[in-house]
Amino acid sequence: MLTAVEVYKKIAPKLGDEEATAIINFIQESVEHGTVTKADLQATAEDVKDVLRNEIKEVEVNLRNEIRRLDAKVDTVEVNLRNEIRRLDAKVDTVEVNLKNEIRRLDAKVDTVEVNLRNEIKEVETSIRKEISDVKREVSELRGLLLKYILPLSSLIGAIVGTILALLIK
Fold first, then answer.
1. Residue 170, helix vs strand vs coil
2. Residues 152-161: pLDDT tens digits?
3. What is the separation of C-alpha 110 from the centre of its chain, rounded to a whole number of angstroms?
4. Separation between Cα atoms, residue 165 and residue 170, nearest integer Å
5. CB-based contacts of 30: which residues, under 8 Å, 6+ apart?
6. Burial class (CB in 10 A: 0-12, 13-18, 19+), 8
7. What is the distance between the alpha carbons of residues 19 and 50, in angstroms, rounded to a whole number?
8. CB–CB of 24/8 below 8 Å?
9. CA-to-CA dists, residue 99 to 90, 94, 104, 116, angstroms
């Protein structure tokens, strides 16, 4: 036969401390007074079953309410996350468009700089070719002048040297 403490330990988790203590006290008092009958115990058992059923229903209601509350919270979080994803997608799209525009702008600038540099190179090349052509022309003119004056000078020098030699020989 179970002791009052053992019975208490078995029913306390299901009923709670107060109800379990009340039942144990009732049973002990009934046994002490010799008035406990099988009908009393069956009535007590039915009361315990009713209390347990009511507590189970209350727990079920509380759990359903908590589930509904959590479902609503999950729905809210989901909506917020979807909105944040849309906002970030739009921001990424904007950044992508801006980057593409900047790349196009820089490509155009590079193309313009390249064209300008090629034109400057052509201008410098043309200028250098002109200067080379001018120098060649001037050198050619100088050669012509030198040839024009060197032959008469060399004849003159030859005559002077001939005269000096003739004078020296005499």
1. coil
2. 888 888 889 8
3. 28
4. 9
5. 36, 40
6. middle
7. 12
8. yes
9. 14, 9, 9, 25
Q: How far is CA 167 from CA 5, 153, 157, in A?
A: 165, 20, 15
- The pTM of this model reads 0.42
Number of residues written out for the chain: 170
The rounded distance, in Å, linking the Cα atoms of 8 and 14 is 10
Q: How confident is the model over 97-134, as pLDDT tens digits?
A: 999 999 999 999 999 999 999 999 999 999 999 999 99
Per DSSP, 34 falls in state T
Average pLDDT, the chain: 87
Residue linked to tokens 């007590």: 44
